[in-house]
Design a protein that fits this description.
By secondary structure, the chain is an alpha/beta fold. It is 42% helix and 21% strand. The chain has 14 helices and 14 strands. The chain has a seven-stranded mixed β-sheet with strand order 6-7-5-8-9-11-10. Strand 3, helix 3 and strand 4 form a beta-alpha-beta unit.
């Protein structure tokens, strides 16, 4: 086995049940392993009509896997599907090596990448929910190892079983505690969202497959229009480089404002535990006025990626929200860009004219309720003039005997707020 200081190695293996997405999912599994700092040293596949109940793979393939692990001196085996607890135990016993299924691998990545307290709690919750049905006696510290030989009338009979139940209760208690803590955080987030909604600021959420370029687009927009240009988000060419939802305020040249959020990326076969756990993180998408789906135009599997994104959004309850689709990384294919067709855009995130076109589409969809009105505001109401100058797009200002005449483009809510000063009222 390799030393802890060295990069660990893995054999990846998958079962093809005549699924058209199989090759793509295996390529993605290798990328997930790389994202978890593992070196893939071998790849095995088997085609079957159905999985083996005991070992998932057929007897011959399990034997081949064992020999491959020995030959490559691999530290672990990563399986392309979620296995039952007994399948993992049986495979570990027969191959004499550590077995991680796809769900376990993704949970590990999330655990390593979570930064905020909420994200860490959500990952911890998902891991505990994944571990609960996988508890077994051999993985538990037996009570007889902790309490000696059991003298004085104490018997060790059934002690392993007792420890298993004890471990289960500890995990269930921890799950309950984390759920309560997350509820408290979500209440606070809901209060913040209500405050934002009260200010009538359009909200836009970037969604899509992991590593499609959402964070790069976010940074380009924050750098140009951000209220705080220092608040960049991390960008890395790796699956799940960012997990935490980031919200930034944008202020355009005409004083129109917007809240832009960059959400966690999706991946095929995203573990159910994580979809459930991250529902609150993705609440920014669920409460958005507009979704921007970012797609990797240069990836030959982009159609599958779009399907995965849409299925995941549906699963977490994000439906009936207007969405524009951005096909990013067109520069890799050297495609003409930016190219717009309705609310779809082919672009390259690092090119200014692409960002200009994207901003145009977002603005068209976000400020539909804006109206252009003329106001006559008395001189003693200078605070209203000041508000319009900072919160609206003032088109003209004229001083007349009765006060200040202001023509402005503003929200319908603000127009109603100052309706007593409307000239055409």
């Amino acid at each position: 086995m390799h030393l802890d200081t060295e990069q660990q190695t893995a054999v990846i293996i998958g079962l093809n049940l005549d699924n058209e997405q199989f090759e793509y999912s295996m390529t993605e599994l290798a990328a997930l392993a790389e994202a978890n700092n593992l070196e893939v040293v071998a790849r095995l596949v088997q085609k079957l009509d159905h999985p083996d109940k005991a070992t998932y793979f057929g007897k011959g393939k399990v034997e081949e896997l064992k020999m491959t692990v020995l030959d490559k001196d691999a530290d672990m085996v990563i399986v392309n599907d979620e296995l039952s607890p007994s399948q993992i135990r049986n495979l570990e016993k027969q191959t004499e090596t550590k077995i991680i299924d796809r769900t376990g691998l993704i949970l590990e990545i999330f655990a390593n990448r979570a930064r905020t307290h909420e994200a860490k709690l959500q990952v911890q919750l998902a891991k505990l929910q994944y571990q609960l049905p996988r508890l077994h006696t051999s993985a538990s510290q037996r009570l007889d190892q902790q309490t000696g030989s059991g003298g004085g009338g104490f018997t060790n009979r059934g002690s392993g079983e007792s420890q298993l139940e004890l471990n289960r209760r500890v995990i269930e208690k921890e799950i309950s505690h984390i759920k309560q803590e997350l509820k408290d955080i979500q209440k606070s987030d809901l209060t913040q969202r209500k405050q934002r909604d009260g200010k009538n600021i359009p909200t836009v959420a970037l969604v899509g497959y992991t590593n499609a370029g959402k964070s790069t687009i976010m940074n380009q927009l924050v750098n140009r229009y951000g209220e705080n240009q220092e608040k960049q988000v991390m960008v890395k060419n790796m699956l799940f480089a960012t997990l935490d939802t980031s919200v930034r305020k944008l202020i355009f040249d005409d004083n129109k404002t917007m809240l832009l959020s960059d959400t966690v990326g999706f991946v095929s076969k995203l573990p159910h535990q994580l979809v459930k756990a991250f529902r609150s993180t993705l609440a920014e998408a669920a409460n958005a006025d507009l979704l921007v789906q970012v797609v990797d135009e240069a990836d030959e599997n982009k159609e599958l990626m779009m399907k995965t994104t849409e299925q995941t959004l549906k699963e977490i309850g994000v439906e009936n929200i207007p969405m524009i689709t951005v096909f990013n990384k067109a520069d890799i294919l050297d495609e003409p860009r930016p190219q717009r067709a309705g609310d779809n855009l082919i672009m390259a995130a690092l090119e200014e004219d692409s960002i200009d076109e994207l901003v145009q589409i977002i603005r068209e969809n976000s400020y539909k309720d804006y109206v252009t009105e003329e106001f006559l505001i008395p001189f003693d109401k200078g605070d209203i003039v000041n508000y319009l100058n900072t919160k609206a797009n003032v088109l003209s200002t004229e001083y007349v005997a009765e006060g200040t005449k202001v023509k402005a483009e503003l929200t319908a809510v603000d127009s109603d707020r100052f309706k007593q000063y409307l000239i055409n009222n």
